[in-house]
Amino acid sequence: MAVSKKRILFIIMDGMGDRACPELGGKTPLQAVDTPNIDWFVSKGNSGIMDVISPGIRPGSDTAHLSLLGYNAKEVYTGRGPFEAAGIGLIGRKGDVAFRCNFGTVDSDLNILDRRAGRIKAPDTTELVRSLSDIMIKGVEVTVREGTEHRAALLLRGPGLSSLVTDADPHDTAKVLESKPLVPEAALTAEVLNEFVRISYERMKDHPVNRKRREAGLPEANILLPRGAGSFPDIDPFPQVNGMSAACVAGVGMIKGICGVCGLDVIDLPPACTGGSDTDMILKTRIALETLEHYDFVLMNFKAPDVCGHDMMYAKKMEVIRKADVAAKYLRENMPEDMVVVFTADHSTPSTTGDHTGDPVPLTIYTDGMIQDDAEEYSEYGCAKGRLGRIRGHDLLPICMDLANRSEKFGA
Amino acid sequence: MAVSKKRILFIIMDGMGDRACPELGGKTPLQAVDTPNIDWFVSKGNSGIMDVISPGIRPGSDTAHLSLLGYNAKEVYTGRGPFEAAGIGLIGRKGDVAFRCNFGTVDSDLNILDRRAGRIKAPDTTELVRSLSDIMIKGVEVTVREGTEHRAALLLRGPGLSSLVTDADPHDTAKVLESKPLVPEAALTAEVLNEFVRISYERMKDHPVNRKRREAGLPEANILLPRGAGSFPDIDPFPQVNGMSAACVAGVGMIKGICGVCGLDVIDLPPACTGGSDTDMILKTRIALETLEHYDFVLMNFKAPDVCGHDMMYAKKMEVIRKADVAAKYLRENMPEDMVVVFTADHSTPSTTGDHTGDPVPLTIYTDGMIQDDAEEYSEYGCAKGRLGRIRGHDLLPICMDLANRSEKFGA
After folding, report:
1. 3-state SS string over B80-130?
2. CA–CA separation, B246 and B10 (whole Å)
3. Which residue in A267, A294, A369, B47 could disulfide with B375, CB within 3.0 to 4.6 Å?
4. Are B121 and B148 in contact (CB under 8 A)?
5. What is the average pLDDT across B60-72?
6. How far apart are CA A389 and CA B48, in angstroms?
């Protein structure tokens, strides 16, 4: 096409969809709050509702984001482990196996005294993880990365690995377990894992950090306890599949992990972008717009509505919606013209149920020159009055790429 | 079912979908033109919007028509070549390999002097093609058909053919190329092709037509230059799949080719049905109705809106829409009662972009006895207010067959 290519911004308001709240006279938080700025995008754009996976399916944030990025989540999703590892910066590739780990306290017979090493945290964990670098076992490269508090992630990379091994973590105060292969092909992985656990004990048991903790009467963190093996999925990188450079602006580890595994660049955010209800949405929006100066596609995630939904706090969700509307005002006043902007959610987290539901989420797609539709209000039903009808999550990206003049023609 | 079977007419207004035109105050050409006769079908029928392939995907006319005929375009589409050959009457079947050809001018060393033989045309090409009949090479049947001007199509039929061969046409004034097999299994095809090119030279070099051209100082057409090998797709014939006799009323070669390959009878049209903006739509509609006296299903294609879209001429598209509405008046006044009539498009060709887009197309299905819906106006958004919601192209035929009392029950 001769027309110029536009940039695409996805604003994913995590868990935004809700159900009728008795306290709000049967309205949802979105219906109860006036959102003049998001509604501006609704009135200029086209709206509809979206089943992020398929009708009635309750998506996780991980499967939902895969779908929104255009992947078939049912084909590529291999479990939560790899995305959690990726979320703390351990982005693997096909064939790699990731584990979630705890720092634990064991005696010299490897009986567990504390499965969380007294909820140890940085900077102690930072120093301890440093002692676990440069480990290579039977041709398998071993990488450890610290998470929050007593948590860490472990990545194995090498030929012939398998995720079909049992945990070393007994999930209890018992003896550390020998990992066992669940199929013969997983024997190497179990062997490497057991050897790694042994090495973690050897290297940490007399580490200066632990000597200091011993003196202070704190539980030592003298072993790493891996669990939840997961293979990295075989995902074709988003930029390669779609011919767009792409970045993610998100505060939450798992979202960063999913985007990282899909080949998006994960933008570092200042501490004010917390991933919680107290996050600075205007700052995040500003960073998204700055990022779009260098990228064709940006996915921005606001985690706050989901947190309120899980906490079953409709009033707090309304507050978050007001903040999101102020961020929409900033966007509207500062965005360039050649943009496709999407307001949607990865799933519903109703404040009446406290967990994800399979309700379709509201969707608005805005760019200049769209055919006017009747939708005027950004909400679960307000959007249903628009021209987009009811679509599926993995169709959103092709629709936006077409509007951004970035699609290949299929046929002649 | 005890009720009687109805006949089905698809009116495909090629490229009819559009986007908001600034010159029309943000309306589309369809929204800006009053179409009382098409709207009569909207008000009596049911409407919706349709993703001809899937949401956001930009269809070609070929893949779109395959989808509208109920096929999975992603499975059966093998490229444009076979449909172009079919469009000039060379309708092959699975295993056949088709080529596009030029008549060219070569010297006795097969150096190309003119790749288009002075843009030779009928009746010269008609006579020359006649000299290339009855050719059989190594068990492969060879058929040549003339196209427009210097163009022709070549069809090879026989066991063990492959489309994985290089062109004989050098696409330049160079020596005619030896076709080479790209895989060992294509050796026979390349050999047959090279032998055919040699025979075309032998049979045409002293042909009376060329002797006359020589005398008149015109470039001789003494060789055929094949290019763009393509295998005919494996398509189950439409009449067999759907239990309906079927015909196509279209002016454009490629559409005729697609319908022909799918097993529809291609109706010959008088010159007034041009396939362009100047086509006589009332005449074409009359022919479609006459054809329906002998067939269960007719696909009629108006190419004109697509041409206007590609030319980025919204005003001309509005003119074409007015003509289509007059044809709808003729249809309404002359059609029999037992009909299912569909007004839709194969894709959008917005006059703002000048090429196909993935926007959903407007759809109206009419037959007597339908449930009343709110759609009143045939347009991209007017139809979205109807009862059909948002469907996919390959679902249209089953919906119409059901309304025509022609579907088998699935289950008991």
Report:
1. CHHHHHHHCCCCCCCCCEEEEEEEEEECCCCEEEECCHHHCCCCHHHHHHH
2. 11
3. B47
4. yes
5. 96
6. 9
Residues of A in contact with B73 (CB under 8 A): 410-411
Q: List CB contacts (< 8 A) between B358 and chain A.
A: 398-399, 402, 407
Distance CA B311, CA B353 (A): 9
Strand partners, B340: B8
In whole angstroms, give the CA distance from residue B207 to residue B12: 44
The reply to whether B31 touches chain A by the CB within 8 Å rule is yes
- What is the DSSP secondary structure assignment for residue A335, as one 8-state letter? -
Query: Which residues have a Cβ under 8 Å from the Cβ of A282 and sit 6 or more positions away?
Result: A326, A327, A330
Q: Which of B62, B346, B390, B391 is the best residue to mutate to test the A interface, defined by the most A CB atoms within 10 Å of its own CB?
A: B390
CA B412 to chain centroid: 38
Tell me, what's the ipTM?
A: 0.85
Report helix, strand or coil for A60: coil
| Interchain contact, B359 vs A390, CB within 8 Å | no
Q: What is the pLDDT of residue A124?
A: 95
**Out of A370, A389, A397, closest to residue B384 by CB:** A389
Q: Is the pTM of this model over 0.80?
A: yes
Option in B61, B381, B384 nearest A412 (CB): B61
Mean pLDDT by 10 residues, chain A (412 residues): 85 97 97 98 98 97 96 88 84 90 95 94 94 95 92 94 94 92 96 97 96 95 94 92 97 90 94 84 97 98 95 96 98 96 98 96 96 97 96 98 95 85
Residue whose structure tokens are 């504390």: A114
Answer whether A363 touches B (CB < 8 Å).
no
Yes or no, beta carbons of B390 and A395 under 8 Å apart: no
What are the structural domains, with CATH classification, of chain A? Answer: 7-77+236-403 (3.40.720.10), 84-231 (no CATH)
